[in-house]
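User: I'm putting together a small comparison set for a docking exercise, and I want a reference complex before I start. The sequence is below, and the ligand is 6-O-phosphono-beta-D-galactopyranose. Could you produce the 3D structure with the ligand included, as structure tokens?
Assistant: Of course. I'll restate your input first, then give the structure tokens for the complex.
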Amino acid sequence: MQEKNSAFPAGFLWGASTSAYQCEGAAGEDGKKASQQDIEAAAYAERTGFADAQTASDHYHRFREDIALFKDLGLTSYRFSIAWSRIFPDGTGEVNQKGVDFYNELIDCCIENDLEPIVTLYHYDLPMALVDKYDGWINRQVVADFENYARFVISGFKERVKYWLTINEQSIIVQFWTRKNIIREELQDNDQLRFQINHHMNMAHAIACNLVHELVPGGKVGPALGYAPIYAASSKPEDALAALNAHDLKNAYYLDVYMKGFYNKAAMTYLEQNGLAPVIEPGDMELIASGKSDYIAINYYNSEAAEYCPPDQPRSFAGFNMSGKKGEMSGYETQPGFYRICRNPELETTDWDWAIDPIGMEYLLRDLYSRYNVPLMITENGLGSVDVLTEDHQIHDTARIDYMKTHLQAIKRAVDLGVEVIGYNPWSAIDLLSTSNGYHKRYGLIYVDRTDTELKDLARYPKDSYYWYQNVIASNGTALSD
Ligand code: BGP
């Protein structure tokens, strides 16, 4: 239990998160060209009827109004991403000054309102021009083009941005690679490419770390990893081993690269034995080892469970629930002879079958701090739900409050045991385009009045969770023990 009236550490960053293509809109405006997510979201909208990224939450035009609401909420940080194709519409070459101006204004506005900007360099939205030119992240050329983009952005904003995040959720990109990238159909059966893309991202990550250290006075940089702690499905030793295998391939495979500069041995051996390992060229690992992360940022929504999987099973990657009806998960990741992810019967889930596990937050913070001993930051955490706007413009999102409260209490317990947690940036600051369910599935502390099919007036209405979080922040967390 949390100690009564115990405050969070001084300077703790009380924030909230968004990503560019999910909230900005203006997808083809002021010189910006399409990103692969603009194209992917349009195709998905066509198939499903969910919204696309063209207008999204119109943050591009309304960021001042949004930031004023963040200020009233009491936020002290705002995590957002930069759209590469707003800066370099073709991925490389000509800079789009209007795109640079937008982020200059956004960053200035954060600072004027006492919000620490936390900037993600890449959140799934590769310029489509680079996909057309050379298949995007599949091709090593992307690493040099990312360096050019990252150097430009980091140099430009270095005086005002101290906290940088490199690439959002490499682990999720591996699992859902055809949703997070546009991949030609004839390549989609080649699972090795998932890990090749990730290898290129590891190089890009290291380059970005080095650039921040070279260019930003006092700069801090880290990955933003999608992370689920993995429990054994039972106390059978073979399930415990399966959970360890799953941890190695789904978590340590990324974190060891970021924090130790090499690939987790057991995970890499499994990939090699199964023809999935990335091609590593001379010099790659030296580059990767040179990029040091100052902190680990974690996007945490749910924990997972793993069980023994016999070697004769067919391989599959993560399934998903598209319907928002409990129990309609399409499947679970199966790595033959290594592990199978399974439902954890001990935990309640969201309507999208994501296990709700506040203790998992405490578990992962403790575990990561013991393993890597660097400060930790939460850059996503939140509850996706169908929110209802009442006639008098209220949103009674009590389940979200409960979710955030229990997860923050878990963070505090980890802090009380000595874990250095420097910030909490829940997903999401405002309602925005879900990666899977348009505006049907909302996460925001602030409601955006639009639906998938109707833009309406895009007015902003604080939800009950906004006022609850405001109280938590004003008390520096002591209100969590009430
Ligand atoms: C994370 C992503 C976010 C966000 C969130 C919720 O994986 O970094 O971009 O969308 O998940 O996912 P969804 O929108 O599919 O519910």
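Residues 19, 22, 168-169, 172, 226, 299, 380, 384, 427, 434-436, 441 surround 6-O-phosphono-beta-D-galactopyranose (CB under 6 Å). The longest helix spans residues 192-215.
User: Thanks, that's exactly what I needed.
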